[in-house]
Amino acid sequence: MTKYVINGGKPLHGEVEISGAKNAAVAILPAALLVDGVCRIENVPNISDVTLILGILKDLGANVRIINKTTVELDCSKVNKQNVPYELARQIRASYYLIGALLGRFGKAEVPPPGGCDLGVRPIDQHLKGFSALGSEIQIENGYIYAVAPQGRLQGAPVYLDVVSVGATMNIMLAATLADGMTIIEPAAKEPHIVDLANFLNSMGADIMGAGTDVIKIRGVKKLHGGSYSIIPDQIEAGTFMTAVAAAGGEVRINNIIPKHMDCITAKLVEMGVQVEEDGDALIVRRTGKLTRTNVKTMPYPGFPTDMHSQIAVALCLAEGTSIITEGIWDNRWRYVDELRRMGANIQVDGKVAVVEGVKQLTGAPVCATDLRAGAAMVVAGLAASGTTEIEQIHYIERGYDNIVEKLSKLGADIQEKKIMEEDWRTSAG
Ligand code: EPU
Fold first, then answer.
1. Domain limits, CATH 3.65.10.10, in the chain
2. Distance, CA 67 to ligand 1 centroid (Å)?
3. Active-site positions?
4. Relative to the CA of 320, which of 29, 73, 217, 333 has its CA 20 to 30 Å away?
5. What is d(CA 337, CA 389) in angstroms, rounded to the nearest whole number?
6. CATH superfamily of the 22-230 domain
7. Could you tell me which residues are beta bridge partners of residue 252?
8. How many CA atoms lie less than 13 Å away from 429 in the CB half-sphere?
9. Using CA atoms, how far apart are residues 354 and 375, in angstroms rounded to an integer?
């Protein structure tokens, strides 16, 4: 077991390269199940969620070749199994994409309900509703979801979602790609990774229109062919580095991003007094003076992303005045609050709303990463705080951040990954 140890209070300076998007990669890799041929996928982030998905694909019989740190070749033509092992699926939220991909390819999928970070209730009823609309029979028995298309192939159909769901939009897109006829998803989610999945599938021969709008139309095709595709940069990783500069100060050039995807985050940081300059596929982020208070409400794209909630909360803790944060997507994204309080933050939560009173300084403390983005927030807080912060349960952070210690060290941060001594974890257990 390891922890991060950060000696904070040092402004960040230099350049950082952003990796491929986690939430695109965890859908695009399973999408290779639909392809008849070899898919070369580039800009794959080196994170544990990707390792898990590749493990599941191997278990199903896919040929997985790691070409280099960011490129993988997948050949799923020999896959003949539709049952995903319980212990693998339970470790990751995105295992739900295996249902859409297996159902689309074989007309059959046996997948346990997904795991992932505890952000409150995380139903997948809208995914299942979509599969049913496409003619699948669904049963949940013995801890497994069994989905079967009685005619062997799904039938395209209109799907009206009751909530705007990233996962359901992408999963129904996967299931519909090889279905018979036209599927229409409405209202569809519009996140950048939805467009990325549609672009991946279209580049392999799918016929998907409207990704990035409220209405996505998928005309089923008989088969997909192999090809090469490069995953988009990770909006949330880039946003986390931007927030780290806001909280700790300094000037960092954030490379390999799509600035348009960052607008919702850039706008908030600019309101807080951070300077953000666009330069091609990079943003230069600078914070010299004090941070100003603002209000943040998380919403589906192009609104402020829920996956940036806890990181911007750290910057707001250090802003002058009182800020309000409203969580618009998840019931329980507040577990970072208790940890930040250990560092001197002044935050009160009531339901979906938090009131943040800015403090002059955060101080280092032993804290826990309670989920992926809460863990990222602890890193941001540790960088800004005076003294030493020790973060445990870093496996959450490694689910979604590629080489975060190395990237931050290059920016001048004093951050190290250290073994947790036996006596440490005995006293911190429970
Ligand atoms: N919802 C339902 N029924 C469903 C699906 C969703 O009621 O069938 C509700 C949820 O409870 C939630 C809202 O709809 O209130 C939106 O959920 P969504 O389906 O959009 O979320 P998700 O697909 O489970 C993905 C990301 C999350 C990110 C959300 C929102 C992946 C693997 N996960 O989750 O990412 O917070 O979209 O943008 O793509 C993270 O990266 O840290 C993370 C949690």
1. 2-19+234-429, 22-230
2. 31
3. 117
4. 333
5. 15
6. Enolpyruvate transferase domain (3.65.10.10)
7. 14, 285
8. 8
9. 19
| Residue with CA nearest ligand 1 atom 31 | 23
CB 391 within 8 A of CB 379: yes
Extended strands (E) in 33-151:
35-42, 63-68, 71-75, 108-111, 137-141, 144-148
Quote the CA–CA distance of 270 and 104 in Å, as a whole number.
44
Q: Is the CB of 129 under 6 A from ligand 1?
A: no
Structure tokens at 108: 């059959």
Residue with the two structure tokens 């998905």: 53
CA-23 nearest atom, ligand 1: 39
CATH class of 2-19+234-429: alpha beta
- Expressed in angstroms and rounded, the spacing between residue 165 Cα and the centre of ligand 1 is 6
* 380-410 confidence digits (pLDDT tens): 999 999 999 999 999 999 999 999 999 999 9
Structure tokens at 205: 């021969």
* Helices within 251-398 (DSSP H only): 259-271, 309-317, 335-342, 372-384, 395-398
Confidence at 430, pLDDT banded by 50, 70, 90 = very low
70 CA to centre of ligand 1 in angstroms: 26
pLDDT tens for 185-237 read 999 999 999 999 999 999 999 999 999 999 999 999 999 999 999 999 999 99
Nearest CA to 21 out of 185, 195, 177, 187 is that of 195
Q: Residue 111 in 3-state DSSP? A: strand
